[in-house]
Each structure stands twice: as structure tokens, then as C-alpha cells.
TrEMBL record:
GO terms for cellular component: ATP-binding cassette (ABC) transporter complex, substrate-binding subunit-containing. Keywords: Signal, Transport. Belongs to the bacterial solute-binding protein 1 family. Residues 1-22 form the signal peptide. It holds the Pfam family SBP_bac_1. InterPro entries: SBP. The lineage of its organism: Bacteria, Bacillati, Actinomycetota, Actinomycetes, Propionibacteriales. It comes from Thermasporomyces composti. This is Carbohydrate ABC transporter substrate-binding protein (CUT1 family). GO terms for biological process: maltodextrin transmembrane transport; maltose transport.
Length: 438
């Protein structure tokens, strides 16, 4: 499972057992040792292993500070966080995503990172810095980031004689090379491909592509590469022609062309398409590096990573990132800032990169992550390219999560083929923006 993908409440994540959580009060000092306890909260069990290594090195240099990791499952994270901020029991430092930090920045609950650690900012991934800059101030220290590329099954593409680096989607059929390729890569139980007479869409054995209600991996990238937008400022703006055409294209891949699994199988299971890919039952899987470890461990076939699909406006995908923010209510401000400074350093993030967990927020240790995967025989250049060009902004704003929650049932109806795309997006925009005002 992933890290930055978990930024989005609409995606499924692995639930950590309640016994794995150690949620404490940040006011607890380690009286026996005379050390100051600084608490650090996150939701990812795998990345927590990298932080354990990181903080062990930190504590050798700062023997007077004891950094304690709190692991809170994603399912509880965003309900527990506001409650703990209100009661004063929130961790000194905690992970956040773009959908959730704005409300705390606006309410004064966070330390102004730019003012305190401005000298380090030049070392950080600038696209993530921009995501956590609000009202002219930087509120978070970039910890890890994701971009989008195209995983592919080498054998299936060779059999169909398709080069994944050349695929171009377009609402204009005369310019579209992707849909014909996706049809060629989709096969029924009798071995008939989707572009052949007699193909049975009710008995599909192999899918061409992972079109689904997946914002980060799929539909925001289609919207961006068609010149559409999802937000205008903090407000949702879904019914522009470019956005409607992009969503229509994705929905048709599922319901009209049957080159992707039925939405009924995927709208409530964010991992269904990844599972089909690792089972060898899906040829192309567009997603982020958060799936690398699972694919590496579970796929028993040769696979590669190509650039994300090209659209009418080029390859324009989502770059998302997780940041560490600090509570302005911490009782140990100086020690908290010392830990935060470490979290924004190459030394502090090297275990994340060297362990192959994620692209780190400090650019100087990016290569260590690339090197890890190069040793595994995986080239990450497509992810780097995706992050270096024009990108599609992830959702921002203090109430964006409430808006996304309100829109979700309507978006599901659209992907299930139960609502016309244009009408559904207009309604989703209306209810989403109404939720922002509440």
C-alpha cells in the first residue's frame, strides 16, 4: 500500500491493528531520564520503519531528546486529529496531506515552518513546497512525494505488439492511439480480443487498463492532460468542457469499451486493479510508486515502468506529497523545531530513500531511492519525468475533504454508468461547493 496515495480519503488503505497504535499525550516528559519527549504521528506502517532508523540517528546527536512515534491507522487518522487538536493532546509533529492541512493552518494550529526553517527550504522538493504554501506562508516540511507513470506487463504487450511509450489518448478518435491498444490488450475467456468479432464483454479474462474512480492514479491525470481543471482556488470547478470530455473518456473505457473492470468491482475497492495487474490479468496499470513494493513482491512476470499516458495537452499528471507539520500548542517548541529541522534534512530522510519506501522530500537524497530500485531492476525515470514537467494540482483548501465526501456518491454513480457525465459533474460541483460553505 502507499503513502501519498493515502492523502486522498477516496482511496483504500491497509488498516493497522489497534495494537500497533501508541497514541500518547505530547506533554509526557521522560522524567526518569531527564529527556524531553517529542511525539511524531503518521499513518504508514512501512515508512514508520524508516523513521525508526532516522530517529535513532537523531537521538545519538541529541541525547536530551526522545522522539516517540505514534502510529495511527488511516481509518482513524482524520477523525482523531481534530479531536486531539481541540483537546490539546495532538502530537508535537504529525503527517498531513493537502486535503487536510488548510483548516489547521488557517486556525493558527500550526507553526510557521517557513519562518522557522526557511534556510532549509531550498533543499526541498519545490512542487511539494508549493502544495503546503498557503496565504504566502509555508506550513509543512516535505517528507515524501509521488508522481504517476504506467506499469506494464512486458509479455502481454509484446504479444500484442504494443509500445507503451507511444500511447496517446484523445477524445477525437482520429487522434486516439490508446483505445485501439487497450482493446487489443483486453481478452475474453475464449481468447477473443476486444477489437475482434465475437468478443464477450461478460467473460473477460484479461483487461487492458485500470480505468477506475481513482483520482490520483487515473481521472485527475486525464483531466489535466486534456486541459481541464478540478478546482478554481479553493472551490470545485468540474463542469468545464475539457473536464467533462476527459471524465467521459474514462467512463467509456469501463462501460462502453469494456477494456477496464466494471466500476462495481472497483468503486469500493481501491486495490482491485492493482491485484489484477499483479495476477497477470491486466496489461497496463497507471499509478504511483506507492505500489512498487507490492508489485515487486507479488508479480511473477516481467514488468516495466513507462511514462504516463499522453493526452491532447501532453503528459500532465498529479504530483502529491506528504508533509510534516508542527503543532503551535507544543509544550517543547525548541525541541520540536530541532526534530522538524532533522526531518527536513538529508540525514533525516535518507532511511526513507535508501529503504525504497518513497521519493524523499529532500531532493539531494532522491538518487538513493532511484538506486534502490535500480538494484531491483526497475527504472524510475518515468516517475521523475512526470514530476519535472507541467503537473496537475492536488486538491487544497480548509474544507476540501468535506467537499470530496459530499461529491463521492455522485462520482460513483457517474462511473457506474447510472448518471450522464456532464449532468453528474455539474451536480457534484454544486454539492461539493455547498459542503465547503458549511
Amino acid at each position: 500500500m502507499g503513502h501519498a496515495r493515502r492523502l486522498l480519503a477516496t482511496t483504500a488503505v491497509v488498516a493497522l491493528a489497534a495494537t500497533a497504535c501508541a497514541v500518547g499525550d505530547s506533554s509526557d516528559d521522560s522524567a526518569d531520564s531527564g529527556r524531553t519527549v517529542v511525539t511524531f504521528r503518521l499513518w504508514d506502517e512501512q515508512v514508520a520503519k524508516a523513521y525508526e532508523k532516522s530517529f535513532a540517528a537523531f537521538e545519538k546527536e541529541h541525547p536530551d531528546i526522545d522522539v516517540q512515534i505514534q502510529l495511527v491507522p488511516w481509518a482513524d487518522y482524520w477523525t482523531k486529529l481534530p479531536a486531539d487538536i481541540s483537546s490539546g493532546t495532538v502530537a508535537d509533529i504529525f503527517w498531513t496531506n493537502t486535503s487536510n492541512f488548510g483548516i489547521y493552518a488557517d486556525s493558527g494550529a500550526l507553526i510557521d515552518v517557513g519562518a522557522e526553517l526557511g534556510d532549509q527550504q531550498k533543499d526541498w522538493k519545490q512542487s511539494v513546497v508549493e502544495l503546503y504554501t498557503r496565504n504566502g506562508k509555508l506550513w509543512g516540511v516535505p517528507q515524501l512525494w509521488d508522481s504517476i507513470a504506467l506499469f506494464y506487463n512486458k509479455k502481454l504487450l509484446e504479444e500484442a505488439d504494443i509500445d507503451p511509450t507511444t500511447l496517446h489518448w484523445d477524445p477525437d478518435p482520429a487522434k486516439d492511439t490508446f483505445l485501439p491498444a487497450a482493446k487489443k490488450l483486453t481478452m475474453d475467456a475464449a481468447g477473443k480480443r476486444a477489437d475482434e468479432p465475437g468478443f464477450d464483454p461478460t467473460k473477460i479474462q484479461q483487461y487492458g487498463f485500470n480505468a477506475a474512480l481513482d483520482p490520483q492514479g487515473i481521472y485527475w491525470n486525464f483531466v489535466g492532460s486534456n486541459g481541464g481543471i478540478w478546482q478554481d482556488g479553493d472551490a470545485f470547478d468540474l463542469d468545464r468542457p475539457e473536464t467533462v470530455a476527459a471524465i467521459e473518456y474514462v467512463v467509456d473505457l469501463i462501460n462502453e469499451h469494456h477494456v477496464a473492470p466494471p466500476a462495481a468491482d472497483t468503486v469500493n475497492n481501491g486495490d482491485r486493479t492493482r491485484d489484477l495487474f499483479v495476477q497477470g490479468r491486466m496489461a497496463l496499470f497507471q499509478s504511483g510508486p506507492y505500489h512498487l513494493k507490492t508489485i515487486q513482491e507479488q508479480a511473477d512476470f516481467e514488468w516495466g515502468v513507462a511514462p504516463m499516458l499522453e493526452g491532447p495537452k501532453g503528459r500532465i499528471g498529479v504530483v502529491h506529497g506528504v508533509a510534516a507539520v508542527a503543532s503551535s500548542a507544543t509544550k517543547h517548541r525548541e525541541e520540536t523545531l530541532e526534530v522538524l529541522r532533522w526531518l527536513g534534512s538529508a540525514e533525516g530522510q535518507r532511511p526513507i530513500a535508501e529503504g525504497g519506501y518513497a521519493f524523499p522530500g529532500v531532493t539531494s537524497v532522491e538518487q538513493a531511492y532511484v538506486d534502490y530500485w535500480t538494484k531491483q531492476g526497475v527504472d524510475l525515470e518515468a516517475f521523475l519525468q512526470s514530476a519535472s514537467g507541467e503537473t496537475f494540482p492536488a486538491p487544497v483548501g480548509p474544507r476540501v475533504n468535506a467537499g470530496a465526501t459530499a461529491m463521492d456518491p455522485i462520482l460513483k454513480e457517474i462511473f457506474l454508468g447510472r448518471r450522464p457525465v456532464a449532468e453528474g459533474l455539474a451536480e457534484a460541483e454544486r454539492v461539493g461547493n455547498a459542503a465547503l460553505e458549511q
